[in-house]
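Bench notes, afternoon.
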Amino acid sequence: MVDPRAEYDRRLADRRARIAALDRINFIISNIRLGIAGVGAALLWMAAVRASISFTWPFLAWLAFAVLAVIHARRLRRFERAQSAERVYLRGLDRISGRWAGTGRDGAAFLDGHPYAGDLDLFGPASIFELLNTTRTEIGELTLADWLRTPAALPEVRARQAAIDELRPMLDFKEDVAILASESPVGRTGMLAAWAGAPAVRFSPALRVALAACALITIALGFVVYRDMIAPEWLFGWLLLEAGFAALWRRQVHQVLHGIDTPERDLGLLADLLARIEIEPFTSPRLAALHQTLLTGGVPPSRRIAQLRSLVSWLDSTHNMMFAPIAFVLLLRQQLAIAIDRWHAAYGPAVSEWLRAVGEVEALGALATFAYERPEDRFPELVDQGPVYDADALGHPLIAPELGVRNDVRLGDGGPRLILISGSNMSGKSTLLRSVGVSVVLALAGAPVAARRLRLSALALGATLHIEDSLQAGHSRFYAEILRIRTMPSWS
């Protein structure tokens, strides 16, 4: 069994050595660029003012500067990714050492009236979610939260267990996904999902042909005017007529271009994550099925998104002061709006599936990281007939193993169907109850549990640990507990 602390230390040292090496290279390249810029300026002065050398020399100097700038940009990106990898393992070591509380996103927004999440500390500061949450995107975070809030059916749990077990040792893959997702400001995917789910405008195919024909006529008229074959007034008159024709669809064009404006920023994040997932040869049924859902017409989604990003790149170029007049007379923005809308109509419905796949891979990766960092925890044995809950050496994942007291708990399957727990204050009664509840949540999410062994069936979970009385409603604490219990599903 691999020691996660030792492996993280080794990888952290490697990433820090890489950061130091890249930092030295970047320093050297920066100085070389500065020197080339100075030489280029001197050569330009000698060519333009003194006329003592050919303009070829300053051109070559500035060409070398441009090439070096491209190389430098790539090195800087590698440097930033090495820093991101360093943070991945620093946070991993913090989790192993118990220094993770208050350092990550705690998912407090997911409490939202859930019947037992507050009682079991599933969300909020120093919660189960904060411990588990290594996701970097909105959809990954939402998927993980949903798995904790909603118990899965046993076949689904078994599929997740196999996928988590496959991902557990795949540190390079999980590192790559974390680095790629961290390159987006907040891992946004919600706006992209909303845009993809909105209906497309669906322009008439005839309009596409008409706009292309208008652009060709403009080019032809420009050519003949340039050759003095007709008066310029013909071209000006045509441009006015063309502008009036294009204005008939101004509202629809604006709707398409405005709609893609914000989601476009998230396309790079999605494309890079999908490209990384596409090349990984998964073997577990769940991850292999996710691979298949990504294909649209046999083409991987990263290539589909690359097509859309190319269109958006052309759209951005129409704002360039030098290119904007040409784009205007050729109706380029209108033609790009139609092309973007066609992409939206063809692949918009698939975006939700792509996002779902990314969210599931991230959620599975988070649970796999949890499993890797806690090698003493075990996947529960799932039984179809119940109710059954049979645990040996049960602990709580939020309590350090050396501090917690382990207990055996058995319910159902010929044993007791009810356990009464009593004892003095501070004796650990509520901690034991929370340990049972959290183990059920983790087990039915597909994760390993803090126990030497756990055997359980599908169970209905309820809790009243954080129930309080209400003077305003006239409810005592006892009555509030009765009201909560009435809402709980039964085991039968």
